[in-house]
TrEMBL record:
Record's keyword terms, sorted: DNA-binding
Entries under PANTHER family matching the protein: HTH-TYPE TRANSCRIPTIONAL REGULATOR TRMBL2
Gene Ontology molecular function: DNA binding
Gene3D superfamilies reported in the protein's UniProt record: Winged helix-like DNA-binding domain superfamily/Winged helix DNA-binding domain
Boundaries of every HTH luxR-type domain copy: 245-302
InterPro entries: Sig_transdc_resp-reg_C-effctor (IPR016032), TrmB-like (IPR051797), Tscrpt_reg_LuxR_C (IPR000792), WH-like_DNA-bd_sf (IPR036388)
The keyword Ribonucleoprotein appears for this protein: no
Entries under Pfam families matching the protein: GerE
The name this protein goes by in its record: DNA-binding NarL/FixJ family response regulator
Length: 308
């Protein structure tokens, strides 16, 4: 079996397999053995893909394949969403035909009521991404809340990022957990600034004034701008912690930093002034919490979550 299905060319796979067998091999000798004069360029690409490190050592097969699978899944997801966006073009053309005027790619909407009215135009959407400063200011029996829950039960995919400070309020935390149970998946972020709502990865509402949610929003349809907002959300989502996941304790953060800085457990434990046994216990707990198969993968996942 080859790695072409995971995004490697035959040449790149040959190089990866060579350095897997001969870690830290001499670059000139490797180029001569493989018959690849442009080996440096191939290695640069393999470093970008995350399967060879800067010391010319190939990552273990488990880690390398996991990296390639994740990148391939992300690429496939982007391609599928680009195809889905074609239907939004059909909708915009139909709107132009109906109204007799061009659909604006960026539109300023004044006032929260007008923003909510425009959001309701997309009530048939199947996916929403939300960056918000509060979980909700509405009662559980409010008509808007009831409609949203019906959409969740009908298959709406909803993800929300909420600030740490907001969830310090027990009532807001209870609302977030209740919504999470119903399908409005929630994560806790330290990066939230202004409210953003992304609908079907093709339309975005961005709060005009971070200090005043009633001021209104920009409605953005420009594909490039929306794609940037989607990437921003996905990055924040990856770095945020799960709603029910406890915050990282100071000693856990120190252990992760020591793990990244020191090659040996004895050196890392000494730097933290704790026993080697205690250090290894913390490492094992963090690996389990991150779902990591090894320490290198734990460091990568911790970095993705913003823990390092």
């Amino acid at each position: 079996m080859n790695l072409a299905g995971l995004g490697l060319t035959a040449e790149q796979e040959r190089v990866y397999r060579y350095f897997l067998r001969s870690p830290h091999a001499d670059l000139d000798a490797a180029a001569a053995h493989l018959g690849i004069p442009h080996l440096s360029a191939v290695l640069d690409r393999l470093r970008t893909l995350g399967v060879i490190d800067d010391s010319l050592a190939a990552l273990s097969p488990a880690v390398a394949v996991a990296q390639l699978i994740r990148r391939r899944m992300e690429q496939t997801s982007r391609e599928l969403h680009q195809l889905s966006a074609a239907w939004d073009i059909v909708r915009d053309l139909a709107e132009e035909q109906r109204s007799g005027r061009p659909v604006e790619l960026v539109e300023r909407i004044e006032g929260v009521e007008n923003v909510n009215r425009r959001i309701r135009e997309f009530s048939s959407a199947k996916e929403v991404m939300n960056i918000k400063n509060v979980v909700s200011t509405l009662r559980r029996d409010d008509e808007k809340v009831v409609r949203f829950r019906k959409r969740l039960s009908a298959g709406l995919v909803s993800r929300s990022l909420v600030p740490e400070a907001t969830l310090a309020d027990p009532e807001q935390l209870a609302l977030a957990r209740e919504g999470h149970t119903l399908g409005d998946l929630c994560r806790v972020s330290t990066e939230c600034a202004r409210q953003v709502l992304i609908i079907s990865r093709s339309v975005a509402f961005v709060q005009i004034d971070p200090a005043d949610r009633t001021a209104g929003a920009l409605l953005i349809r420009q594909p490039g701008a929306v794609a940037v907002l989607v990437d921003m959300f996905e990055g924040m989502w990856a770095r945020a912690r799960d709603l029910n996941e406890p915050q990282l304790a100071p000693i856990e953060r120190q252990v992760l930093q020591a793990l990244a800085l020191h090659d040996k457990d004895e050196t890392a434990a000494r730097a933290l002034n704790i026993s080697v046994r205690k250090f290894r216990t913390h490492v094992a707990e963090l690996m389990d919490r991150l779902g990591a198969g090894n320490r290198f993968q734990a460091a990568l996942l911790a970095k993705e979550r913003g823990w390092l």
